[in-house]
Amino acid sequence: xxxxxxxxxxxxxxxxxxxxxxxxxxxxxxxxxxxxxxxxxxxxxxxxxxxxxxxxxxxxxxxxxxxxxxxxxxxxxxxxxxxxxxxxxxxxxxxxxxxxxxxxxxxxxxxxxxxxxxxxxxxxxxxxxxxxxxxxxxxxxxxxxxxxxxxxxxxxxxxxxxxxxxxxxxxxxxxxxxxxxxxxxxxxxxxxxxxxxxxxxxxxxxxxxxxxxxxxxxxxxxxxxxxxxxxxxxxxxxxxxxxxxxxxxxxxxxxxxxxxxxxxxxxxxxxxxxxxxxxxxxxxxxxxxxxxxxxxxxxxxxxxxxxxxxxxxxxxxxxxxxxxxxxxxxxxxxxxxxxxxxxxxxxxxxxxxxxxxxxxxxxxxxxxxxxxxxxxxxxxxxxxxxxxxxxxxxxxxxxxxxxxxxxxxxxxxxxxxxxxxxxxxxxxxxxxxxxxxxxxxxxxxxxxxxxxxxxxxxxxxxxxxxxxxxxxxxxxxxxx
Length: 480
Ligand SMILES: Cc1cc2nc3c(=O)[nH]c(=O)nc-3n(C[C@H](O)[C@H](O)[C@H](O)COP(=O)(O)OP(=O)(O)OC[C@H]3O[C@@H](n4cnc5c(N)ncnc54)[C@H](O)[C@@H]3O)c2cc1C
What we know:
Elements: E1 9-10, E2 13-17, H1 21-33, E3 37-41, E4 45-46, E5 67-68, E6 75-78, H2 80-88, H3 94-97, E7 101-102, E8 105-110, E9 119-120, E10 130-133, H4 134-146, E11 156-158, E12 166-167, E13 172-173, E14 176-177, E15 180-183, H5 190-198, H6 203-207, E16 211-223, E17 234-235, E18 238-239, E19 246-252, H7 254-258, H8 265-271, E20 273-279, E21 284-292, H9 295-299, E22 312-316, H10 318-324, H11 330-338, E23 342-349, E24 363-365, H12 368-371, H13 380-395, E25 400-401, H14 406-409, H15 412-441, H16 447-451, H17 458-466, H18 471-477
Parallel strand pairs: 2-3, 2-15, 3-11, 4-5, 8-19, 15-24
Antiparallel strand pairs: 1-25, 6-10, 7-10, 8-9, 12-13, 13-14, 16-21, 16-23, 17-18, 19-20, 20-21, 22-23
Helix pairs in contact: 1-4, 1-13, 2-13, 10-11, 13-15
The structure holds flavin-adenine dinucleotide (FAD).
């Protein structure tokens, strides 16, 4: 808060780089909770937004298209902690508003497809676990950010801008500068590298910003109609996947076949293959098929302009995918060949950090840019929503001076520094826990990280992460 000076104060100008889940959710939360002026700058053209222009293909291997195709985007599982935050931002009926499906059961089966009773997923009407397409969530966020009829100053979203350059010292992205730059640019590492360089970390910390997991994943969308012939997905005469809302997970563990029960659980996990299927709408089912990567598979990901390998290979052959999953029952393997289109994704996460903001408190990284996690715990978007909730709450009381007198305009810096320090203290431990537990389940955590963990149990982890009910409740119980 401005406590001294002329008393002439103004809301902040906040620039957000990246219109993914983290950037847009933060824009919505700031609009609803603060008087600040918010601009989101997105390199791809977003359907429903103005400003279309050239798009640069980056090292993340995003498709060389100028538009994010929200209708054919991949599916995500939104965890209860994330859906609770969406409730705080005004979502009332999650499944309906996201055109998604509520998770009610999960079924873990061996690769042989032997039937095992499904487990019921606990339901809380205020925090349901939801399967939906990422595009449906992006659409909801764009509307909540820009709809003139809703309370608060509408957010300006400029999309289709190509990859923008940033300058942290002037909180500037492209030609737009503000009081604070929120960097929500995902795995592209522009924001992350700039913040870590500003923190004074040597180049090896920010040039190689992400860790490639020893796994790759085939991913595709199946029309629900393609499932009608898969009788193995029927249980009690009902299609378990939809509309009942079941996540199916088939695992092949080579150690079982070798009778190698003594093997270290982490080494075992790293060798497993898994095929996961869940409904994301009344029309589509999302399929992910994970397998250990090999040098040959990794070499197929093209190198981008800056030397990094692309995150995706689009339109791979489904026969090739089915061949890799030869250990699975034929009717499970057939799910891969039933996908009209399959992509191959590299699985990556980010090293944990000591802080997410620049030393001069002019920029902060959020979402995947700050804490990308392996997908195995389905927390990526929920953690991004937690960032949005916490950052907007902490920035609410801040004001800048209208005076151009240097002494007065500097008053904002210590306020920002204090808010971002509290943001770190609330968010880092939670995000780091989800990153580490995902590495643990994936069999690729390094010993130093393992030592920093205070929770190894899946049940305890689930309660700790999924029962979170927003930053206000958290700070009431754990004052900063
Ligand atoms: C295989 C797979 C499965 C997953 N499954 C799940 C799941 O089940 N549940 C879940 O919650 N999460 C899941 N995730 C992760 C989830 O998708 C991410 O955590 C989440 O989308 C992160 O959101 P973000 O906004 O931080 O980043 P992004 O969604 O990557 O958004 C970043 C945005 O910034 C833009 N941008 C980048 N650079 C620039 C620039 N220089 N200038 C302007 N704009 C820029 C990009 O175009 C993009 O729109 C999965 C991910 C993968 C790969």
